[in-house]
Amino acid sequence: MSSSEERKLILKSSDNEEFVVKESSAVQCLTIKNLVEDRCVSDPIPLANVDSKILALVIEFMEKHAETTLSNSEKKEFDVEFVKKPFDDLLELILAANYLDFRELMDVLCNTCAKQMENWSVEEVREKFNIQNDYTVEEEKAARAENPWAFE
Amino acid sequence: MAYSFPEEVLEYVFAFLSSHKDRNAVSLVCKSWYEIERWCRRRIFIGNCYAVSPQIVIRRFPEVRAVKIKGKPHFADFNLVPEGWGAYVYPWISAMVRSYPWLEEIKLKRMVVTDESLELLSKSFKNFKVLVLSSCEGFTTDGLASIAANCRNLRELDLRECEVEDLSGHWLSHFPDNFTSLVSLNMSCLGSEVSFSALERLVSRCPNLRTLRLNRAVPVEKLPNLLRRAPQLVEFGTGAYSAENQTDIFSNLVEAFSGCKHLKSLSGFWDVDPAYLPAMYYACTGITSLNLSNATVQSPDLVELIIQCPNLKCLWRERELIEDMTTQVLDYIEDAGLKALPSYCKDLQELRVFPSDPYGAEPNVSLTEQGLVTVSAGCPKLQSVLYFCRQMSNAALITIARNRPNLIRFRLCIIDPQAPDYLTLEPLDTGFGAIVEHCKELLRLSMSGLLTDRVFEYIGTHAKKLEMLSIAFAGDSDLGLHNVLSGCESLRKLEIMDCPFGDKALLANAAKLETMRSLWMSSCSVSYGACKLLGQKMPKLNVEVMDERGHPDSRPETCPVEKLYIYRTVAGPRVDKPNFVWTMDEDAVLRLS
User: Fold this and answer.
1) Does the distance separating the beta carbons of A151 and B20 come in below 8 Å?
2) Which residues of chain B make contact with A134, given a CB cutoff of 8 A?
3) Cα distance between residue B156 and residue B169, in whole Å
4) Residue B355's closest CA among B331, B380, B377?
């Protein structure tokens, strides 16, 4: 066993909880990988944008995907179960994965998110993403006509 | 919880949205989402080229890489749209050349494509990869030569049922010697012979070639050389499949086909000599799609072929291999052949049976409604049917409907217009009524035979998911049209020919027309006066009267128009109309825009 496999990092969530992870798993997050390569690793690494609940989930995914003994199909099975979460959690995970620059997790989450959004109405999208509608009535009417008439 | 989504995150999510409808929905969420979405949309679909203009498209979506555009109405396939009507792609290409230098993909259906357009596109889009032309016309093999010569990164050249002026087969030789990127080539609709050595060299140097559909002019003795050079093929269409009796051709074919272990789709088969069919048997492992619509193969040979596809036999065992089990045949398959289908093709999803001799007075084959009934009973996954036949009964239709409530496309063409139920001589209203009642997910319906207003009552009541309806020689009065327009909530395309539908229903349901892509009516009873009124009432629709007898003003207002094509648009009236098409109340529309 080489020393890099044993090297651990401490990640600290926004709410000050600390998580110990293997460096070899953590570098799947390019943000962390860059810190390691630039030798800028502080102890612990503060992740201001990720709370403990979400960080725990990210770490669960991270460690599963770092396991060399698992086959691709086993990892896919894990992914299928992993994304069975409330939509709000998925959105928070997406933001965390983006902040950490964790490409594999982003792909799985965004794909799931898009599949769930299939056939949603505009109102549903607004509600689930919690977005305020800032169109005027006229503007919205015009945009609403163009879409199905021209592009469907 | 209010989220603050960085733009790149939204773009990332949007990239996974597969349908245009979903992308359209997110674009309406709020103004910033509209902006983000329009900058990252890479694929656009335009269902009616006159519903929007190239300028509007380019203004909204500046970074498009792939376009799909549809032009003429569907009834153009039956020669109902006169020559010179429109659907020219040139304005689109010239606009895109200026604004989308990185365009990779163009897919067109029922559009007029000139050699000039093809040359322009081939020289302007440096990264052009995919050209699919379905039912297009207006170009010659010179245009194809430009594509071959200039599109250095071409992956797909797919000509489906196009009308190409075939000047020579020389165009294929224009692919440069260092061109190796071809993945798919479909030249099945071309007439002339290409240079076989050029074709062989092309196939040899393109290691990623997975689809090769040859034209009739490629003789069967050339196939082994081609197949040996491309054992990785997944989709293959033969040329003429017969030769003077030469046994070494047969053994060469067997050897070549047995080397093709990945074939999933077979087509071609012009001039089939049944003796050569067994040569393919070794390649039939894994076949999921068989297009035998050119093959004048008698039923027993056909059944033998189907049986010999081991994967078809084992469908029930290896279901995960089946993606799209499609079978297209001429009616030579007959009832007996269709009867055999369920035993060997349990996973059949789509069946198309075309007429071998549609104009013959007497049936030349023994194909009746029974064949379809049998398939509907034995193939639980059957969801899409196109069936030409000479007789039908309500009983058969009711049985089919009960057997297959999962049907989503049902097109029945009884060759004799207004043919009644051949057993009872009644109209086929109850039969088609059963179809719409039981098949609740039906998206597309095409009817034929003797039909009264009653069938439209059933359709209006039950066909709530129906998106496309084709009617000919049916109905008694405006009530029929009224029931369809007022009852079919999901209707997008309605095409009608030779029905006694007039002004009343159309004017009463004018608002419905803004919820549909288009309405086509030909040889009906809609008056010129009503068309003008509709044009006035509905400025956002293009109400186009088509009449080759001259301007409708030269006839009384009550005179029915020859053809009527109505569609919603954000682009205003057409600027490229021929002299036999008039937009109703064009001035009013122009004033509004």
Assistant:
1) yes
2) 30-32
3) 18
4) B331
**Distance (Å) from the alpha carbon of A109 to chain B's nearest alpha carbon:** 9
H/E element, B351: strand B350-354
The tokens for A21 are 């992870």
Q: Would strands B581-583 and B541-546 be described as parallel, antiparallel, or unpaired?
A: antiparallel
Instruction: Look up residue B226 and give its two tokens.
Output: 């081609």
Q: Is the dihedral of CA B261, B262, B263, B264 positive or negative?
A: positive
Rounded Cα gap, residues B562 and B167, in angstroms: 36
Of B351 and A123, more confident: A123
Task: Show the tokens assigned to B244.
Answer: 């003077």
Residue at B580: amino acid letter: F
Q: A148: which chain B residues are within 8 Å (Cβ-Cβ)?
A: 24
Encoded tokens for B373:
């009934």
pLDDT digits (tens, 9 = 90+) for B276-310: 888 888 787 778 888 877 777 665 676 677 766 64
Window B:523-542, CB contacts with A under 8 Å: 540
Q: What is the pLDDT of residues B59-117, one digit of tens each?
A: 999 999 999 999 999 999 999 999 999 999 999 999 999 999 999 999 999 999 999 99
Q: Please state the pTM of the whole predicted model.
A: 0.91
Q: Cβ neighbours of residue A80 under 8 Å, at least 6 residues apart? A: none
Task: Name B289's bridge partners.
Answer: B265, B326
Which tokens is B78 given? Answer: 């039956």
Are residues B52 and A146, on separate chains, in Cβ contact within 8 Å? Answer: yes
CB of B18 within 8 Å of any CB in chain A? yes
pLDDT in tens, B194-235: 999 999 999 999 999 999 999 999 999 999 999 999 999 999
Q: How many Cα atoms are found within 13 Å in the side-chain-facing hemisphere of A142?
A: 8
